[in-house]
Sequence to fold (155 residues):
Amino acid sequence: MLKKPLLKNAAIIKKATIPESMMKFLSPAMIAHLEKEGAKEMGTDNMAVGEWFVIERYLPGGYHKFATDGSRSELSVFRMAEGCNHLHAFGNPGAEKSEDYDSLSDEDILYLPDEFGEAVEIIEQKYLGKKLRVVARSADEMYQYGHRYYLFAVE
Fold:
């Protein structure tokens, strides 16, 4: 099964780096904060290419989601599963990918089934404690709520 579409027309998003000249003035805590928060797409609910999450634990309730350490405090199963089940959306103009996307193997990309209960079980069995990084996102307004689909690399 293809997990990683060829994103020939996607814009390449370069990871922002902290200039060396500033590094000597920043505390280790500030550097960690900037690395964690710097990839966010501020002011929207959309995730940016480069955002990352370490899956910590399932959050029981009416909506399937996991607590995370990373650029956000939680991540829904919907966001983790929908991109890999709608690969066609990444071929549309406006899609974006990370600088290293083309070098990632198919096995590096998170694949979850579209059935959320089953996806939760897989995440709990295989991905707790693992780091997920957004490596591609579709164009805007790709599904009914006007958000994007995402592909994650498992690191």
In short: Residues 116-126 form the longest helix (11 residues).
